[in-house]
Specification:
Helix content is 48%, strand content 10%. It has helices at 21-34, 43-47, 52-62, 69-86, 94-103, 116-125, 149-158, 172-180, 195-204, 212-220; strands spanning 8-11, 108-111, 135-136, 165-169, 185-188, 207-209. The chain has a six-stranded parallel β-sheet with strand order 3-2-1-4-5-6, sandwiched between helices. It is globular and about 55 Å long.
């Protein structure tokens, strides 16, 4: 793939544009604690690959049968909202990367499995929301990124063939789905990614780098 062929970009949010991945582990711990439970080892990593509906059902079936799935979703959203409104920072070189895309006339938007309210809150606070052509969330697509539907909806909004749209992601399961759907993929490292998963990401992705600055450099080559 030549980067001169890229006409649009689909951006992930958590772990790619914002430094939020560790927050979700803290939320899981707090949610379990308020329900008198200890967070099982590895559970945060397991549910990170699920859609909102999937992990809510998983929590209810396995840990909090006294709650409904709707109650779990609402409570986790409430706990996440404070972080997204007030504390989660932008990752390095995001502004520079978006400036590069703007300079080249390349439109972009976001596909995220997180809540609409959280996504809008953090993007508004960081001044990124007005820059996006669209923001698709896990509430728009309950299956999240476990199917290609969200990516293909973004492709429709951008109006270019799949082969001409770069997907920028960090997580292995998202990279796998984007590659399977035919998109070129740029993978950005996040410290929460296990080494074995990052190695697999690097094998699958069209390009990979430690930051968005490194991804942006490919556009200059």
């Amino acid at each position: 793939m030549a980067f001169s062929d890229i006409r649009g970009v689909i951006l992930d949010l958590d772990g790619t544009l914002i430094d939020s991945m560790s927050i979700w582990h803290e939320i899981d711990i707090a949610f379990f604690a308020e329900n008198g439970l200890t967070l099982p080892e590895g559970l945060s990593e397991t549910v990170a690959k699920m859609s909102i509906d999937e992990w809510a059902a998983y929590f209810v079936q396995n840990y909090v049968p006294s709650l409904t799935e709707a109650q779990v979703i609402a409570r986790i959203e409430e706990m996440a909202a404070e972080h997204y409104r007030n504390t989660i920072p932008m990752k390095p070189y995001v502004t520079e990367f978006l400036d590069l895309l703007d300079a080249r006339g390349i439109p972009y938007g976001i596909c995220t499995a997180t809540y609409r309210s959280s996504a809008d809150a953090v993007l508004t606070r960081l001044g990124l929301l007005p820059r996006m052509q669209f923001v698709l969330t896990g509430e728009d697509f309950p299956a999240g990124k476990s199917t290609p539907d969200m990516y293909l909806a973004a492709q429709q909004r951008l109006g270019f063939p799949v082969r001409n749209i770069l997907v920028v992601e960090d997580a292995l399961h998202c990279v796998e789905m984007a590659v399977r759907t035919g998109f070129p993929v740029a993978a950005v490292y996040d410290p929460t990614i296990p080494d074995a998963e990052w190695n697999r990401v690097c094998e699958l992705a069209t390009v990979h780098g430690g930051s968005l600055r490194e991804i942006g450099a490919f556009f200059s080559d």
